[in-house]
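W.,

You were right to be curious about this one. When I first looked at the sequence I had no strong expectations either way, so I just let the prediction run and decided to look at it fresh. Below is the sequence, 366 residues in total, followed by the output.
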Amino acid sequence: MNSKTWVLPFSAKPFARCASAASFFPNLPSYSLGKLCHHFQIAHHNQHRAQGDAQATVALFDLLLRQNEGKARQEVIDPEIKVKTLPPKISYALFEGLPEATGVYYFHDEEGRVIYVGKSKNIKKRIASHFSTNLDNRKTLEIKNRVADLSYQITGSELIALLLESDEIKKYQPLFNRAQRRSRFQYGVFSRKDRQGYRHFYVEKIGQQTKPVLLAAVNAQNAREALRRRVEIFGLCMKLCHLYEAGGACFAYHVKQCQGACIGAESSEEYNLRAQAALESFDPYVGKTFFVLTRGRHAGEKALVLVEKGRYLGWGYLDETASFRTPEEAKAYIKAYPDNKDIQKIIWAWAKKYPQNVQFWKTPSL
C-alpha cells in the first residue's frame, strides 16, 4: 500500500491504542520509537522534537502497513477512527463493550437522565452509526455533545425490542425522541350493538373507550373517512355508523342506498350480515385473544407476548420447554405493560409478517 494515501489521525505514537508494538514486531529488545527506528534502519533526525519524531513515526507506520496491512487496520486504524467519531464523553472501552446483539439502547446525559432510546438488531453497530453519519446534522451534533453514558437491554427478539422501545420512550419522554413520545393515533373506529341487536360503528377518541379499536387514525376526520368508505362498500346505514345525526331515516335511505335499518325497515339479522363483513374488513387481530412466541435472549429460551380480547397485556421470557393451556396460565410468564395503539400496531404488523408464531384462543365476538 502506498502510505501517501493515508492521512494519519495520530500524534507521534501510532501504536498507543493497539495492544502492543510487540504484536507487530515480536522478539525485539525494545519498543521505544528510537530503538524501533534503529532496528529497522529508519532515519530519525531531531529525536524528541515534534517534527523529527513525527517524520520517524510516519516512516515506521509505512513499514507496518507494508508488512501487515490487515492487522494494522484492525488494531490501529479502525479503533482510532472510531475514537475520533465517538462523543467526547464516551470512552472507547465503553463503546467496545457494547454487544452485537438485538435489543434496546439508551443515551444518558451527565446527570444520568435518558435523552434518547433506540432499538436495533445490532446494538453496537447502530450506536456507532449515530456518531459516524449525518455529522453535519444539528440533532446528531447536539446528541453527540450531550451524551455522557450508554446502557442497553438485550431482548433477543426484534419484536420485544420494538415493544420495549415504544414503552420506554413513553415512560422516559427522552429529549431526542420527540416524535415518538405520544401515540400518533388519537382517534379510532369502535363497534357495539344496541338493545335491538343492530351493530353500530362510531368514531371516538382513543383512551375514552375500553372496547377494542377496529381502526386507528391520527385525527377524527381520517377515522370518519375510513368508516364512510365502509358504509359505501358494505351498504351500511349512515345513522347506525353515526355519520348522520338527524331524526328519522338517514340520508342514504332517501337515495335508496340504505335499506332502512335506521327506521326498523330492515331486521337486525339481515343488516348485521353486512355489518359483520365490514367488521371483518378491519384488522383480523382486533378483539382476539392470542399470543406470540418468538426467540429469546439465548438458546433454550422463548419470548412471549400476550393479547387478551384485543388488549395488549405484556411480554416475558420462558424456557422453551414450558407450556400453558389458557391465557391465565400464560399470564404467569409475562410482565404487565401499558396498552396503546402504537403497541397494537407493532404486534399486528408482526403477526401478519410471521403468522406461524401466532396462536389464537377462542373468545366471544365483539
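Here's what jumped out at me. Confidence is low (pLDDT under 50) at residues 1-20. And, maybe more interesting for your project: The chain has twelve helices and eleven strands.

Coffee later to discuss?

I.
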